[in-house]
Amino acid sequence: MTKCDLKTRFKHSGDLYLTEKKLMRELEQKYNDLKDIVFEDNVFPLDIEGHYLRGERELYRFMKENTVFVETILNKADETGIEHAGDILSYMIIEHHTQDDTAWQFQMTRRQLQYLLDRIYEEVFGNEQA
């Protein structure tokens, strides 16, 4: 995946993050064994006894992949050493605040925020190629 593809995927996944986390909690209450499910790449997920999962359990798998992706990106942002990097991305992308609101929240100008976002995106997505 290219840098642009990852950035776009992060923005779309971030839009759904809070909703998916809520739905995942509801599904975990309905199906107690969801946390024990083994997820393998490019195959249907299997439960502990080796049965294929369908319906809500498969939906859970896709939501889990999305939320893990978003959390991984936010952790990478925090590890960049840029002050408040993960918080800024979370505030803008996940909580849906404007750049003006975000700049005000973190006590900077909008231009400073744009420069900082460019740095964060370069640090997080800059070396990602597949």
Give me the count of strands. 0
Derived structural class: mainly alpha
The total of helices stands at 5
Helicity level: 55-70%
Spatial gap, N to C terminus: 5 Å
Tell me the overall shape: elongated
Give the strand content: under 5%
- Count of domain modules: 1
Averaged pLDDT: 83
Radius of gyration from the CA trace? 17 Å
Order of helices and strands: HHHHH
Low-confidence stretches: none
* Main β sheet profile: none
How is this fold's topology laid out?
Elements: H1 3-30, H2 56-79, H3 85-94, H4 99-105, H5 110-125
Structure overview:
It is a single chain. It is built from five helices and no strands. With about 130 residues, the chain is mainly alpha-helical. The chain has one domain (about 5-125). α1 packs across α2. The termini are close together.
Key terms:
130 residues, mainly alpha, elongated, 5 helices
Quick overview:
The protein is 65% helix and 0% strand.
